[in-house]
């Protein structure tokens, strides 16, 4: 008989003692189907008859199931095993016995399947994880998903494959992969499986403290199961949250959500997600480590490239003063000086070249110390007046030699402005910034100013009531907008032509940034573009808020008072 094979009547199949019975051909197409309890699960048997193996009532792994049918038909030997079926979002762990239907003088091409739906008690009493893979309804699915995840070290791919695999297997409304870090205040959804009937929430992030079950999930290692009477922000009624771990440290959360109706999560489903979470936790850790190694490799390669560029660009800078020292000393040794005055000039030139070389070497050594963490700064109160006076004494003559104006402005206060930092290093930073401003300015001038900002900050294990913001503004050559981001990079000079024209190693700003950060401040650079001047600002904590002068002045008086304040250090 080539058509559908009718099953025995009610008495017939009951005599067989089968809870579920159906006949399939070698492709898995249902020829007959009978299940007296099908109505309990809204299953219509008539709709299953004639359907293919993966259309209506189907095993989770249809290709594996079909291969088993073909093997049974070829060997003509019945087999008993467990298999997980699904029907419209419902899952049925079944114990099945499949027997070939033997036909006289023909190869068998149909099988008789008798099955039994495993109860929760049977599932809990059966240690499915310890059974051979062909007996575990979830084990082959787990193995297949885990193998796919282990094939990649791309974190985004692992996240997405995890949610897609679980979402498709368990037919949930949503499956979310959430990254976890102890420092994060928000939980961020990294990947999502979303059923077509549900709304996507992929771009959402949320406060884990706002929802009790999230707090519970992050406080325990066991899965968290929630059935909600009222819909939450995600419209979920049933929720299952399982944490992923690596070496006992949580590194993610897998969240399953069922919307529109409550869903009892079976013991087998929970165990399946838990076992997969173990695999995912390890995969996340390995992928994260790989990313960190890859970034470290790129950083090392970039550092090596920058250092090579630095050595190439500064070789000339180091050689020039050294050649000057050797040249002028050779002139004296060879008796080329006509008189004692010219000999003194040669010695002064050699001395200046030696000081220049020393400054270059100091820059390099300072950066090396900072990078190695060996520069220790002793921090104490520093009087802004004293600092500005020293800057004026060092740099004002340089500005005058180039016919540039040079002004120092500070707030009008009754009490001293006390910075909290290291005097020598603050002076080094200011001399670097002012020196650069003078070097790259041909006309106009430089203004060094300070202002008090009442802003509490916490650094060096103590709280400070305010900060001082110190600015160095010039009318020099400026820097293009696209080049400004590179100014503070180590071993980087913005323009090789500028290097040749103005000299220097290009380390001044990098060193200044490190020193300012070590003293609890920050440094920024501003320029509207080439030829439009530059302003560099940096902040330093204040030991106390100074008492400001509040005497009102007219605009003319205020300008006059500013002029006096500007020139106070020049007159000294």
Automatic annotation (TrEMBL):
The Gene Ontology CC terms held by the record are: plasma membrane
Which reaction is catalysed here? Answer: ATP + protein L-histidine = ADP + protein N-phospho-L-histidine
Question: What CDD domains does the record tag this protein with?
Answer: HATPase_EvgS-ArcB-TorS-like (cd16922), HisKA (cd00082)
Q: Name one GO molecular function term.
A: histidine phosphotransfer kinase activity
Q: Where is the composition biased (Acidic residues)?
A: 555-572
Q: Which UniProt keywords are present, listed alphabetically?
A: Kinase, Phosphoprotein, Transferase, Two-component regulatory system
Coiled coil where? none
Q: Which family does it belong to?
A: In the N-terminal section; belongs to the phytochrome family.
Q: What is this protein called?
A: Circadian input-output histidine kinase CikA
Identify the EC number(s).
2.7.13.3
Q: Where do the Histidine kinase domain residues begin and end? A: 313-544
Q: Where is this region: Disordered?
A: 551-572
